[in-house]
Amino acid sequence: MNNTTILNTANENVSKGDYESFLAYCTSDTKWVFVGERILNGKEEVRAYMKEFYVEPPVFDVKLAIEDGDFVTVTGNISLKNKNGKFEHFDYCDIWRFENGKIAELKAFVIEKKP
């Protein structure tokens, strides 16, 4: 399986709300950098982030995915339901780095869409 296919398979689990199956695709020391916002170190911090921010599974609309070696860059839109039950919409560009078929690092550029 190539890294793009691995990422798509992992993200299918997120779309179903199966975050533990998604986390099985991550290295134990995975690092997620949300540029200008926060850094998550390790599966436990990613798990806690998902529990807090994925009140319901996010809705992804992938526009482009480019694979180069150990990296997959993805652009698109994501919608998240907030704690008040309203959807918030974002544009994103994610750069995923893989090690031995697992997600080792994410660098995410996320911009909220204004109404």
Class inferred from helices and paired strands:
alpha+beta
Radius of gyration: 13 Å
Number of helices: 3
Mean pLDDT: 96
What is the 3D shape? Answer: globular
Q: What is the H-and-E element order?
A: HHEEHEEEE
Task: Tell me the layout of helices and strands.
Elements: H1 3-15, H2 19-23, E1 26-34, E2 38-41, H3 43-53, E3 59-68, E4 71-81, E5 87-99, E6 102-112
Parallel strand pairs: 1-6
Antiparallel strand pairs: 1-2, 3-4, 4-5, 5-6
Keywords, separated by commas or semicolons:
six-stranded mixed beta sheet; globular; 3 helices; alpha+beta
Structure write-up:
It is a single chain. The chain is α+β, with helices and mostly antiparallel strands. It has 3 helices and 6 strands; from the N terminus they run ααββαββββ. The protein has helices at about 5-15, 20-25, 45-55; strands at about 25-35, 40, 60-70, 70-80, 85-100, 100-110. The protein has a 6-stranded mixed β-sheet with strand order 2-1-6-5-4-3, covered by helices on one side. β4 and β5 form a beta hairpin. The longest helix has 13 residues, at about 5-15. The termini are far apart. The mean pLDDT is about 95.
